[in-house]
Amino acid sequence: MPANLRPRSASCTEQPVIALGPEGPFPRVRLRRVLERRWLHYAFLSRDHALGMVANVAWLGPGLEAGDAAPRCTAILLVHKRGEGWCASQFNTITSTPLWSAFQQPHAPRMPGPLTLTSTSASPAVDLQLARSSRPCTSQCAWFAPDQHLRWQSETGVIARGRWTFQDQIFDNVEAIGYHERVRGYWGWPELGGWVFGFANDPGGARDQAPPAAFVFTLIQPRGPGDTAAGSVMVWRNGRLRRHFPRRCVTFAVRGQLQRDKVQQVPALSKLFGVPPMEPIPQQLMISARMGDDWVTYDYHCDAAARVVIPSETSLRSFSVHEVIGPVHVEGCISGEHFAFDTYGIVEFAGGADDG
Amino acid sequence: MTSKEQAKELSPEDLALLAGLRRGNDWLRAVLCTLARRGLGFRQQHPARAEQLLAVLSRYPYFKAGQFLFDLMEWEDFMLDGEPPPLAPTTLDGPALQRMAGLLNTFRAHLDGGQPIVAPEVDTILPLFVPEDEDLPSLEPSLYLYHEVVLGILCSVRPLLQVQASPDGEASRPAS
């Protein structure tokens, strides 16, 4: 088990006194194969939309020949300041231990817990207290290739308070609201193909309470077989998942291309990889979902993007995850209750390892 | 609060209740992992056949419902968490299949009054199942375990579905 995931050295076989299921965000089983992956993902936007952050901590199996070796861990932190762009660490961000996760059980809502992420160069960095205000969605799984799969589970309405460091600027007592996700599975980047993913939290409502509405969508587009694309739209109301629109009820549309001078490539050392030109990012993303009388739309405009270049274990081309921040209008009607809000959201456009 | 600290707060009755749930958990985990290991063994022996079976079943409404429930209850994490459980070789064995067939027949008769309640014939079921659990492969986190469980169920009921050759040599319906 990764050292930064659990507070103490816990062997794979150690059993808690009372255990009716996994205690942490991941089951206690050793990662072995190279493509066995686990992630904890964090994304937050400050209440005033001036600051945004995305962080991902990933573990990868050491390989069958490595025996009992520990999994390889990478962690990256990106902080965005509106008008000034992105500041990113390399893949060696220093993380607090244990890593905060909404999926650490038991986990009381509104009980703050620490999450500290610091670039080895001290900037960017975040020193946060995170608290849940909502409940997670159902665990979901996309399988493809045909023996690969990606399993994820997300929770909106996570409230973050603390210090943010962007370049040489320090911002204290920043309150942000965001999103947490756990991901695990077994996949290669070419087989995975690409994904589009994003969220938005309604900024209205009381500060310590769950957002009145929240929106999360996922679209995974594996290379094959042809019918394996997985997607969904989920809507929370007051911290509870109220509607899950399956793929057949969701349409995605894009328009235009984001100007390429608004896309910043990170981490800095990725420029040494000789990566191919970046894929275009849409200027606008429109998602609509309808199921019976319930409907929701997500009208998103890309504003600033960071292209995170991820080396691929099984292909020459790298995998690119474009973290995008932009304004969004969300509107819908669930069980006869109409809602609408304007805020900023974070969207990911990812892919590229299977091209060429 | 650690689990040891939690235990101090609980009464003996609470602990007895939780211990009962734990026993049920252990049994369920052993059953699920046994099915998954049977399915994995089948997949390793017949990879193309397993892939085709799953491709066909993926359009089956019960398969979709099962996948939803499997994900909803987070059974994959539950199955992989901790020391692997021992095999439960009586999982879907002859007596279990006999009871399951009776249950399904009864359910069908309750749903459709035109259907008779048929008692399954023990002799046609019991001799068909041959335990093959001795050399089953271990489960790994690289597996999407819902598929392995489904394949394991198919392997377990396969003896009931022996295809009988018709007199004219065509593949015929499964034995009822």
Would you kindly provide a written description of the structure presented here, covering whatever features stand out?
The complex is a heterodimer of chains A (356) and B (176). Chain A has 356 residues and is an all-beta fold. Chain A has one domain (36-351). Chain A has one helix and 21 strands. In chain A, strand 13 (230-237) and strand 14 form a beta hairpin. Chain B has 176 residues and is mainly α. Chain B has a domain at 13-93 and 129-162. Chain B has helices at 3-9, 12-45, 47-57, 61-72, 75-80, 94-111, 122-125, 145-157; strands spanning 163-165, 171-174. Chain B has a two-stranded antiparallel ribbon with strand order 1-2. In chain B, a hairpin with a 5-residue loop joins strand 1 and strand 2. In chain B, helix 2 (12-45) crosses helix 8. Chain B is globular, with a radius of gyration of 20 Å. The A-B interface holds A 12-13, 15-23, 26-33, 35-36, 61, 106, 138-141, 143, 146-149, 151, 184-186, 225, 227 and B 1-4, 6-7, 10, 15, 18, 21-22, 25, 51, 54-55, 58, 67-68, 71-72, 74, 76-83, 140-144, 146-147.
How far apart the termini of chain A lie comes to 36 Å
Radius of gyration of chain A from the CA trace? 19 Å
Distance linking N and C termini of chain B: 55 Å
Give the overall form of chain A: globular
Number of helices of chain B: 8
Global outline of chain B: globular
- Poorly predicted tracts of residues of chain A: 7-15
> How many E-type strands of chain B?
2
Side-by-side strand order of the widest sheet of chain B: 1-2
Characterize the quaternary organization of these chains.
heterodimer
Based on DSSP secondary structure assignment, what is the total number of beta strands of chain A?
A: 21
